TrEMBL record:
GO cellular component, one term: cytoplasm
Classification via InterPro entries: HAD-like_sf (IPR036412), HAD-SF_hydro_IIA (IPR006357), HAD_sf (IPR023214)
Taxonomic lineage: Bacteria, Bacillati, Actinomycetota, Actinomycetes, Micrococcales
Annotated source species: Actinotalea ferrariae CF5-4
Name of the protein: HAD family hydrolase
KW Phosphoprotein (keyword) present: no
NCBIfam families: HAD-SF-IIA (TIGR01460)
Keyword terms: Hydrolase
Gene3D superfamilies: HAD superfamily/HAD-like
Top-level taxonomic group: Bacteria
Tagged with keyword Repeat: no
Length: 332
């Protein structure tokens, strides 16, 4: 169920693990209220680490972009899927081993920094292939990865996101490119990115935090990773997954808090409570009757989404199948 806090989230939690695209920015554009929300959260004592499934960019590049958007950030406040993939390699491959890297500069840097010898050809006999997204990857690089894996190399993917948000819409992501290699080899790769919990746990360990909060816009990756890691998650409605998606989310992807945007870090959060079969919060109320969600006509905004989540999640967890068609867009 949704959680409640009497303190603003920025004061209740000591570290925010913040997703990038859809939370802090969209493409090259700032997301409204993101800079002010994160800056004020810092003033209240909350530390920030930006955690991204993007493996192609260097932490310095990410930090520079955030700083240019009014979110002052240092490179050590960025955790990329490339760094997580390199850490995962260390658990399976001896230091100094040859690794075929299929990806961008960020992945090359991370694998080299982890102490491995980077190669570019299957004939160099790599013991592992690590694959991350880069817009320049083509058939030749994917073929080399397939050849090496067919010869017994371990396959590690930085992430398995099928799509990638761009200014023009959604494009094929790293998971789509990994899928081409999997189709050729039949080998399922290890994955370092969200929703696997590795990146979150590495970021928390590196920061020394004791009470982290995950912030994301995608239920299947950001919030799924939070659940897998055992951390509470704030779902902001500025990116991919909608309020309706949250209502219909499986237990493995449900957030602990909902907010329209990052101003939600600066507020206490009340959880809905049950009253005579209705889940209520301020003027909003919802219930499930005969497998259909009913919303009180006064229900508006994020509170409507919160009571709808409470009602549907309770019903679903109790074994009731809720008709998705009964869940409206909610307009948040």
């Amino acid at each position: 169920m949704l959680l409640s806090t009497t303190l603003p989230l920025a004061e209740a939690y000591d570290l925010a693990l913040v997703d990038l695209d859809g939370v802090a920015y969209k493409g090259h554009d700032p997301i409204p209220h993101a800079a002010d929300g994160l800056t004020d959260a810092r003033r209240r004592g909350m530390r920030l680490v930006f955690v991204t499934n993007n493996a192609s960019r260097e932490p310095e590049s990410v930090a520079d972009q955030l700083t240019g958007l009014g979110i002052a950030t240092s490179p050590d406040e960025v955790m990329t899927a490339a760094q997580a993939a390199a850490a995962l390699l260390r658990h399976h491959v001896e230091p100094g081993a040859r690794v075929l890297v299929v990806g961008g500069a960020g992945l090359l840097t991370a694998v080299t920094a982890a102490g491995f010898e980077v190669v570019a050809c299957a004939d160099d006999e790599p013991v592992a292939v690590v694959q991350g997204f880069a817009p320049t990857i083509g058939w030749r690089e994917l073929a080399e990865a397939a050849y090496a894996i067919e010869r017994g190399a371990l396959h590690v993917a930085s992430n398995l996101d099928l799509s990638l948000p761009t200014e023009r819409g959604f494009a094929p992501g790293n998971g789509s490119l990994v899928g081409a290699v999997v189709a050729a080899t039949g080998v399922t790769p290890l994955s370092a990115g969200k929703p696997q919990p590795d990146m979150y746990r590495l970021a928390v360990e590196r920061s020394g935090a004791s009470n982290p909060l995950v912030i994301g816009d995608r239920l299947d990756t950001d919030l799924g990773g939070a659940v897998a890691a055992g951390y509470p998650g704030l779902h902001v409605l500025t990116g991919v997954s909608s309020a309706r998606d949250a209502v219909l989310a499986p237990a493995t992807e449900r957030p602990s808090f909902l907010a329209a945007d990052l101003r939600g870090l600066l507020e206490p959060h009340d959880a809905p409570h049950e009253e005579q079969g209705w889940w209520a919060l301020r003027g909003a109320a919802a219930r499930v009757v005969d497998g259909r969600l009913e919303l009180d006509e006064r229900s508006r905004g994020v509170d409507a989404a919160r009571v709808a989540c409470a009602a549907v999640w309770r019903a679903t967890d109790g074994g009731t199948l809720v008709d998705p068609a009964s869940v409206p867009d909610l307009g948040v």
